[in-house]
């Protein structure tokens, strides 16, 4: 029964659906505040029901399958993408008493599962048999390869500092000093994650002005909703992973628990939305130059800093 609860309720399907509804509404309200707009307002308290109506509208729309698409990829990826994204949730410690899979290779498994998602989005573009979708897929694959090195190196920093890849041990071992030591790695991890998730200013794969809507172009109705659900699930995972690896996860100054973790995730969400609201999309060549010229060398320097801090500040070996 406990496993069934984890799969269907928390941290499973129901939690992901509620998160998707909440973060879509929350991002709209924060964007509206930054841009001096009203945002969702009429339906529900503070426009809280507008997102529910939007999701219901997508569910009611016809899912059109164009001619000449790859029927297997086109139909399978919208189901596989959110399922694989939700699989990552079992690795994360959500509270002192809730971690579904407590493994010694948690950091490695987390990075691998997050890194697989952009490849699935590439397959959506490849299977659509549409030049705009294919270009969007190629872009996200190129972006993933460019950002993954920095992403992995940044995730490796807390594992080196604490001498373990176990996520629960990392959370329990964290304190204010280790958080300060890992702060540069947290910044690199978050920037690389924005690139992997194709979020502004790295939203190059779905550039509407250039390639219509990238790998999403041919998807409508329920299929489109499932792909967006996978995207919102990835937000959840990246926010939770950043907090877990670098900011002591569910641990707080007053009490420990999921509420502490969720508050820290909301802070990261506000940061991401602020970046989205205030930065223009960069070109693909600019992203590649930034990733390989700056992020990768800085990631290696960050590992060197963590090792030095472990020996001289924490007295480790």
- H-E string: HHHHHHHHHHHH
List low-pLDDT spans. none
Domain module tally: 1
What is the makeup of the main sheet? none
* Discrete helix count: 12
Radius of gyration computed on alpha carbons = 20 Å
Q: What is the number of E strands?
A: 0
Secondary structure class reads mainly alpha
Distance between the termini: 44 Å
Give the overall form.
globular
Strand content: under 5%
How confident overall, as mean pLDDT?
Answer: 90
Helix content bin: 55-70%
What this model shows, in words?
The chain contains twelve helices and no strands. The protein has one domain. The radius of gyration is 20 Å and the shape is globular. The longest helix is centred in the middle third of the chain and has 32 residues, at 131-162. The mean pLDDT is 90. It starts with a helix and ends in a 5-residue tail after the last helix. Helix 3 (50-60) packs across helix 10 (221-246). It is mainly α and 317 residues long.
Short précis:
By secondary structure, the protein is mainly α. The protein has twelve helices and no strands. Helix 2 packs across helix 3 and helix 2 crosses helix 11.
